[in-house]
Structures are given as structure tokens and as C-alpha cells.
Amino acid sequence: MTQINQHWNLARSPAAGWPTDGDFAFNESPLPDPKEGQALVKTIYLSLDPYQWGRRRSGVETVGEVCHGRTVSQVIKTRHPTFREGDIIFNTNGWQKWGLVGQGISEFNYMHPRVIDPELAPISTAIGVLGMLGLTAYAGLYVQCQPKRGDTVVVSAASGGVGQNVVQIARLKGCRVIGIAGSDDKCAYVKQVLGADDCINRKAEHFETLLAEACPEGIDIYFENVGGAVFQAVLPLLNPSSRISLCGLISQYGHDDAASNHARWQQAGADVFAQQSVTVHGLFVGNFVDDYQEQFLEEMGAWVASGQIQYREDRWQGLEKAPVAFSAMLKGDNFGKTMVQVEEDPTVY
Ligand SMILES: NC(=O)c1ccc[n+]([C@@H]2O[C@H](COP(=O)([O-])OP(=O)(O)OC[C@H]3O[C@@H](n4cnc5c(N)ncnc54)[C@H](OP(=O)(O)O)[C@@H]3O)[C@@H](O)[C@H]2O)c1
């Protein structure tokens, strides 16, 4: 067993903009020893998510702390009441090779550690399609916007971690689905693999016109992942009584804090929202865990097992790559759900 833990710590309070080299420091420390009620776990997959930048920018994550991140891990040594040696678990180990579960509130962060059954699906799905990202899509589209057969649903960042699930759930619900993504390759994937009726490249010349042409009967549901210019193009196409799930505004995360981003977004849409009686649902996945996680895992698990829902992962190899993979994702250079494979997956032979 390696006797040294390796981890990325937040090196300074990040300035406005996107992450830079000096924001993170790669450190080593002795392996933690589990106390009664705890287990020592080894990280296998680390999830990289846009919200982590918000935590760092806003000071929720403090300088010197191991960077926060949800993980799939294996239990190596245990004094925990539930977790057995060898169990594969979902937990929040952070950007490090080793960690402890059973430490209390710091590991909760809206999603409790739980054992994963490798027989049901590849274990990496616990931080993707069958994890927080899948639940976000399910909660925002299905629970909040209540899609009806024939509705036109538009999804931004459609090939990404959340977006790819929204596209496919909407399709399974009988909707007409239009994706928006940042390259022709991504758009081809959204149409050919995820089954969207169309997908528009947000960087294309005349993007607004192309989007309008793809939505001749207007938009009934908009799943908002990005904000900015994409949102401006969606606004004039919203139908009376349309619904929006305000999931995220990634185009703004380098500029300002989340609260003012949301306020500016509401202000930019205010006239259209009033004229068209648009319902805007603010989305925070943490609010759906207690009531919907079980139902979600059952329904989504069945769709994944039957192949009705596909998923694409953007995997980086080695913990050292975490900062560069994180920056790439924030800038839109990812293709699928971004994660780092930290150790070999013991369930893959
Ligand atoms: N509300 C919640 O509880 C909750 C939970 C999870 C995630 N989220 C939000 O959901 C959104 C998607 O997260 P994810 O983890 O699935 O990430 P992701 O979609 O896998 O990756 C981010 C994507 O955002 C797009 N993007 C980046 N910069 C952009 C820009 N300037 N303009 C337009 N698009 C840009 C890129 O897609 P293209 O290049 O293809 O456009 C990029 O691939 C984020 O806004 C995130 O904060 C919210």
C-alpha cells in the first residue's frame, strides 16, 4: 500500500476569471488513519464540476484546504459501521488519492456516501449519469418543467454532463428536442447518439437565425445551462406559458458571483417572462435528493441498463491532471462529463 497521500490544495483565493496555475498546489501528506466509525478509502474516479469554481471563488473553500470534489472510491481499511473492506462507494473525497469517510457534516454536501453495486452499471456512472448530474437533469426537466409529448425542448451545453441527460429524458418523454453545443462534432453526437431532432452550434455564424429555424413552433421548455449570448437567442422564441429550468450560467462564472449572475439573468429576461407568462424554476439539485433520488435511480438506472440512455465521459488520467482538466471544462473544451481517473478501476477486467 502507498504510504503517502497526494492531494491538490487551494493555494490562494482565486481572482476573477478562470483558474490559473497558481490557484492550486500539489502536496503530499501521511496516509490518514481511520478512527472508530471511519473508513480509509482510495479514490478511483474524481468528478470535476463547474460549481467547484463557485466554491473557490466565493470562499466556501478556504485557502490550504484539499479541493472539494465528489468521488467514486474503494474502501481499503474500515472501522465504519456500514462500509466493508473492498466496497465501492460514492463519497466526497476531494482532489486527493486517499481520504476518510465517517467524518460527519463535511462529507455530506447534499449527497450521502453510499455503496455502489458494480453489477448494475459501470461505477463511474455514480458521478455522472446516475449521480448528481443525472439527478439535476431529471429534477430540472422532469420534475420542474413537466414535459408533455410534442413540446419543443431546447437544451444548452447539450453534450455536457447535465445536458446529455436532459436531451435524452426529453426524447423519451416524446418531446421535440433541440440541442445547443459548442462544436460541429458535439452537435453530431447530440443528434446521432443522443437522438435530438436538431442541434445548433452556438459558435456558428447566424446562430440566432439557425436556432429560430430549428424551432418553427417556438420553445415550450428551455433548460438553461449557460446564459449569456445563448440565452439572448432563446428569449424571443419562448412560447406563452413556457417553462425554464435555470440550472446554471456557466458563461458567467468567470465574471462575478452566482447571486448577481442570477439577478442579471432575470433582469435580462424580465420583459419576455412577463409578456409570455414564462415560469422560471430556479434549480438546486440538493433540494431534490431526499424526495427524488430513489425514484431517479430506479427510473434512470433502468434506462441506462436498457441502453435507452447513453452517456459520454471525458476522462483524464492521473490526479496530476485535475487542474488542467478543470480549466478545460470551464472553457467548454470538454466533450461529455468531465472526470479524472485517479486509480485503476478494480471492477474493470
Ligand atoms: N443547479 C444545479 O443544482 C446544478 C447541478 C449541476 C450542474 N449545474 C450547472 O449545469 C451546467 C452544466 O454543468 P456540467 O457539469 O454538465 O458541465 P458540462 O456541460 O459538462 O461542461 C460545461 C459546458 O458549458 C459550456 N460552456 C462553457 N463556457 C461557455 C460559454 N461561455 N458559453 C456557452 N456555453 C459554455 C460548454 O459546452 P458547449 O461548448 O458545448 O456549449 C461546456 O462543455 C453548469 O452551468 C453547472 O453549473 C447546476
Q: What does this molecule look like?
A:
It is a single chain. The protein is an alpha/beta fold. It folds into two domains: 4-128 and 311-341, Medium-chain alcohol dehydrogenases, catalytic domain (Quinone Oxidoreductase, Chain A, domain 1, Alpha-Beta Complex); 132-286, NAD(P)-binding Rossmann-like Domain (Rossmann fold, 3-Layer(aba) Sandwich). It is 29% helix and 24% strand. The strands form three sheets. Strands 3, 4, 5, 6, 7, 14 and 15 form a seven-stranded mixed beta sheet that branches. The longest helix is centred in the last third of the chain and has 18 residues, at 258-275. The radius of gyration is 20 Å and the shape is globular. The mean pLDDT is 94. Bound molecules: NADP nicotinamide-adenine-dinucleotide phosphate. NADP nicotinamide-adenine-dinucleotide phosphate (NAP) binds at residues 49-51, 133, 136, 157, 159-163, 181-182, 186, 202, 225-226, 228, 230, 247-251, 283-285, 329, 332, 334, 337-338.
